[in-house]
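Q: What residues go here?
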């Protein structure tokens, strides 16, 4: 049995990313009901809002689901308290040191997965006792690695040095990409951008339509002096690029970023002044569909491509 399916008790080795302002209970429950693993993104939620989403997700599905927790947030203790009180069984941690909370969570019987973007932190996560890692390549949307290592390079490097299961992330929105990730050594895939435009995504409709209108080269990695983040190009992204070209320091970039800039764009629909986090694979997304259809399209395409490759030796006279 696939190790990730066994770990999470799910049908398909397809994980929905915990994206800020996109991953509420509606999306998470829809993905879980379809046989994948849905994730509530706690990064954009106050503790009591997160509690509400967890409770609603429990009512909307009897399947496993998880919560993504960025460890850099100042109210992290309150967030941890909520997931413990609500009996969440799966936590995906990110943007911080996994050693800080992994032991506490696992002592409560919680399955812990940590998101990394390089080999150094993969080894740290494994040493901290995580059950699996998400290996996120440079192509991914949202917060990203400073090394700019692509998924195609990162997965095989990790496969040689870690023993825990690897979930590939970054640039995956099709069965072909999923098969490529498996060929490189992944045990499952995490899909973000494709689910950001799902009908059940809590993203603003203007953001969804801007994503499906995006073309090749319409995203850029920015704010490397703070926390690197991949953005769709717009007025805000242009302002960041100009500031960085002028040598802006962290404090200047923080002032430009301000408060709730991501909420302004992704949730409230200001396509010019908001922060629009999305992956390079947005150039391949052309339709808003239900999460169930998105998951099944990826899985069915994966199986089709796998069957095609199984006949490749004969075609090549090998």
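A:
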């Amino acid at each position: 049995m696939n190790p990730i399916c066994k770990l999470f008790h799910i049908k398909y080795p397809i994980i929905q990313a915990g994206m800020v302002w996109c991953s509420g209970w509606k999306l998470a429950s829809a993905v879980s009901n379809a046989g994948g693993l849905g994730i509530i993104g706690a990064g954009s939620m106050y503790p009591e809002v997160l509690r509400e989403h967890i409770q609603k997700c429990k009512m909307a599905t009897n399947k496993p689901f998880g919560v993504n927790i960025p460890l850099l947030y100042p109210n992290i203790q309150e967030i941890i308290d909520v997931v413990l009180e609500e009996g969440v069984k799966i936590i995906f941690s990110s943007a911080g040191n996994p050693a800080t909370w992994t032991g506490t969570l696992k002592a409560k019987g919680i399955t812990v997965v940590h998101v990394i973007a390089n080999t150094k932190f993969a080894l740290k996560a494994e040493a901290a006792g995580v059950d699996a890692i998400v290996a996120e390549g440079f192509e991914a949307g949202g917060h990203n690695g400073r090394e700019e290592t692509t998924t195609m390079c990162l997965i095989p490097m990790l496969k040689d040095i870690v023993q825990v299961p690897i979930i590939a992330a970054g640039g995956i929105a099709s069965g072909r990409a999923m098969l490529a990730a498996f060929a490189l050594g992944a045990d499952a895939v995490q899909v973000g951008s494709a689910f950001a435009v799902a009908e059940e995504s809590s993203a603003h409709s203007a953001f969804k339509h801007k994503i499906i209108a995006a073309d090749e080269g319409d995203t850029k990695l920015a704010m490397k002096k703070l926390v690197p983040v991949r953005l769709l190009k717009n007025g805000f992204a242009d302002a960041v690029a100009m500031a960085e070209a002028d040598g802006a320091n962290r404090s200047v970039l923080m002032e430009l970023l301000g408060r709730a800039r991501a909420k302004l764009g992704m949730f409230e629909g200001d396509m010019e002044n908001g922060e629009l986090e999305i992956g390079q694979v947005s150039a391949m997304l052309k339709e808003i569909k239900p999460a169930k259809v998105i998951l099944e399209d990826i899985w069915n395409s994966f199986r089709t491509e796998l069957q095609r490759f199984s006949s490749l030796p004969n075609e090549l006279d090998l």
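A: Context that may help when evaluating the design: The first strand starts at residue 14 and ends at 16. The radius of gyration is 19 Å.
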